[in-house]
Amino acid sequence: MTLTVSPASRFQHEGFALEPKPVLPMSLIERARAGIDSVRAGHYDTGRAPYASPWNPGDDPHILCKIELGHIANEALREVASHPAIGAQAAALTGATHVQVWWVQLLYKPPLTTPDAPTSVGWHQDYHYWQDDWASPDGLLTAWVALSDVTAESGPLRFVRGSHRWGLREDSDFFAHDPDAQRISLDIPDEAHWEEVEAVLPPGGVSFHDSLTYHGSGPNRANLPRCSLALHLCTDHARLREGGGALTRFLDEPGICPVLHSA
């Protein structure tokens, strides 16, 4: 007898979920992909610039590009960040009745040009960076939306299965340029088993991960850039930290933080 495990149970157990089929229409994916190029070039069809970011137009095009709230600068990216299909999936995985975007990051990983070009993402837990804004990791997750073909060669996200059950660790480093070397020094529980899973996705595919799930990615060894939006989501189970922080100050602005699902 074969027992069927629901996506929600699997997400709760593993700390991540992959949707290998596109959830967005191809026409939107194509416009959003062009929107990434426009934002990187400093062209904003909404008339509004992104939030202050680690990478800005004119910076080195051969390094990892991370732009904060890039969706407010481009209509197609805003459509992606507001798409109800993403909210419906997040609700199904978490049992939430309310799913809202509270922050967005545009991520563009160029093909590796030199061995020491910083295009990797170090192992980290998202909540490590969110503690000033949220009282606990509960009810927080990320939807990572592929806007290009994410292959094993292009530096896909790598999740550590079950790592969300290890609690908050103190050694996250998004900007570590050698995740494999960083891995050796990570402080994980003695009984923990480190098992990595690659999030290979087609354009329009989405992965979801818990705010405590360890994840990172290696360099892009493909010939084309790897493009995505990371939508950081909160549900009705999330609780703001008293006093709040800089990242949650736009929660009442639907143009920046759209509600994706409300039952």
Features:
263 residues, alpha+beta, Jelly Rolls, 7-stranded antiparallel β-sheet
Could you outline the blueprint of secondary structure elements for this entry?
Elements (H helix, E strand, L loop, with lengths): L6 H8 L1 E4 L6 H15 L24 E4 L6 H7 L2 H11 L3 E12 L11 E4 L15 E7 L10 E4 L18 H7 L10 E3 L7 E5 L4 E3 L8 E10 L23 E4 L1
Antiparallel strand pairs: 1-8, 2-3, 3-10, 3-11, 4-9, 5-8, 5-10, 6-7, 6-9
Helix pairs in contact: 2-3
Question: Can you walk through the features of this model?
Answer:
This protein has 263 residues and is of the alpha+beta class. The chain has helices at residues 7-14, 26-40, 75-81, 84-94, 179-185, and strands at residues 16-19, 65-68, 98-109, 121-124, 140-146, 157-160, 196-198, 206-210, 215-217, 226-235, 259-262. It has a single domain, classed as Jelly Rolls. It contains 5 helices and 11 strands, in the order αβαβααββββαβββββ. α2 packs across α3 (75-81). The mean pLDDT is 94.
Low-pLDDT runs: none
Helix residue percentage: 10-25%
Shape: globular
| Gyration radius, rounded | 17 Å
User: Mean pLDDT across all residues, rounded?
Assistant: 94
Q: What is the CATH topology?
A: Jelly Rolls
CATH H-level superfamily = q2cbj1_9rhob like domain
Bin the strand percentage.
15-25%
Sum this structure up briefly.
The protein has 263 residues and is of the alpha+beta class.
